[in-house]
Design a protein that fits this description.
This protein has 201 residues and is mostly helical. The protein folds into 2 domains: 15-73; 75-112 and 133-197, no CATH class. It has 7 helices and 2 strands, in the order αββαααααα. The protein has a two-stranded antiparallel ribbon with strand order 1-2. Helix 3 (88-105) packs across helix 4 (127-150), helix 3 crosses helix 5 and helix 3 (88-105) packs across helix 7. The longest helix is centred in the first third of the chain and has 42 residues, at 10-51. The model has no long low-confidence stretch (mean pLDDT 85).
C-alpha cells in the first residue's frame, strides 16, 4: 500500500536540492552579468573622461568583477607631478594656491568614486563655528590676493593657476588640444616657480 510521499522521501529531497542548486546558480550568473555590465560602464566612463583630457588614476591591483577597486580622478597637479613635469616644491605651491582658491569659492577637492556622503537632518551650526568659518574664508581671500599679487596679476599666470590648481583640471582638459595644453603647462610652470620661490610662501 502506497501512501503520500513524505519529506523523508529521497526522491523529493534530491529534487529540492537540485532546485535550490539551480536557483543559486541562476543568482550567481545574474550577479556576474550585472558586475560585467557595471565594469563595462565604468570602463566606458573612464575612456570618455580620458578623451576629454581628465587624468584618471588606475586602482592598484585593478581587476574586473564584483570586487573591482574604484578609479580616482587625478587633479592637474597630481597628474603633472606623477609624470615628473613639476617638482615637489612647485606642487606644494600649487596646492596652497588651490586650497585658498577653493576656500574662497567654498568648494571642496575632487572626491573619489567612493566618496558617498550620507546626509541627515539640518543642524543649525553654533555661532562660534560660523565665525571661525568666516575668518578662515577671509584669510583664504587675503592669501589668494597675495598669491595673485606675486604673479604680478598677469592674466595668463593667474588663469593657469585658477584652472589647474584651483579647479583641479589637467592642462589637456582645459586646453582641448595637445599644443594648447603644452602652452598652458609652460605658463603654469612659470607661475608655480614664482609662487614657490616667493618669500613668505
Amino acid at each position: 500500500m502506497s501512501g503520500p510521499k513524505t519529506t523523508r522521501d529521497p526522491t523529493l529531497k534530491a529534487q529540492r536540492a537540485a532546485r535550490d542548486r539551480l536557483a543559486r546558480l541562476e543568482r550567481q550568473a545574474k550577479a556576474r552579468a550585472e558586475a560585467v555590465e557595471v565594469s563595462d560602464g565604468v570602463a566606458e566612463t573612464v575612456a570618455l573622461s580620458r578623451a576629454r583630457g581628465q587624468a584618471i588614476a588606475e586602482p592598484a591591483g585593478a581587476r574586473r568583477g564584483p570586487r573591482a577597486k574604484p578609479y580616482r580622478r587625478q587633479t592637474g597637479l597630481e597628474f603633472l607631478a606623477g609624470r615628473g613635469r613639476i617638482d615637489a616644491e612647485a606642487r606644494a605651491a600649487g596646492e596652497r594656491y588651490g586650497s585658498a582658491y577653493r576656500r574662497v569659492k567654498l568648494e571642496k577637492a575632487i572626491p573619489s568614486t567612493l566618496g558617498l556622503q550620507v546626509r541627515g537632518e539640518f543642524v543649525t551650526p553654533a555661532l562660534e563655528a560660523v565665525l571661525a568659518h568666516a575668518e578662515g574664508t577671509d584669510l583664504a581671500r587675503r592669501k589668494l590676493r597675495e598669491f595673485r599679487a606675486r604673479l604680478w596679476r598677469q592674466n595668463d599666470l593667474v588663469a593657469a593657476c585658477d584652472l589647474i590648481c584651483g579647479e583641479e583640471k589637467t592642462p589637456r582638459e582645459v586646453a582641448g588640444s595637445e599644443r594648447e595644453a603644452g602652452r598652458l603647462e609652460a605658463v603654469l610652470k612659470v607661475a608655480l616657480d614664482i609662487l614657490a620661490s616667493s618669500p613668505g610662501r
